Amino acid sequence: MKRNGRLLHVALQIVAVIVFLAVPVVRVHAFDAEVSRETLKGLTGFYVVIEELNPNIAKYVEVQKIRISTQQLKSYVENRLQKAGIRSLLWDEMTKTPGSPVLYVVVNTHEYEKFWYAYDTRVEVRQLLTLVSQPGKTISGETWSVNMTGIMNIGQIQTLYDNLGVLLDRFIQAYKKVNEKK
Q: What is the full DSSP assignment across 33-57?
């Protein structure tokens, strides 16, 4: 009896390995690649969220009267989306849209020397995802992203807008590629 049980156990393990290897599993990594672009397919618009800017840059921006704020970045992103024909959703619309898609923008800065900054600008899509390990459990997760990192001095603040524009162009291109009307 023990031998038959052990053989059955080994046979089940072999079947499990074969099934695991035979079933195609698509692993989604949140960057701009074909597999992550597919996560943009069918989305009808995005709620735009801009992460709060670091105060380390605001102190100089205010002094130089250079206009950069979370609200100005939000308007900039929404205008770029609108010009590209992509809807910017209101909160209520987003919560009723399958996947609750969010276009999340981060402009992170770190002053490493007076007037000199390291920066990382990131544009990502977040959606509600279902956990395979816990069917029915949904979480918000990043499904597509691009970023740009560099160094600038405070006199080059326009670089942040320029780089954000480049990243938004990449997003728009990726979105349109998978949502082309055929």
A: SHHHHGGGTT--EEEEEEPPPPHHH
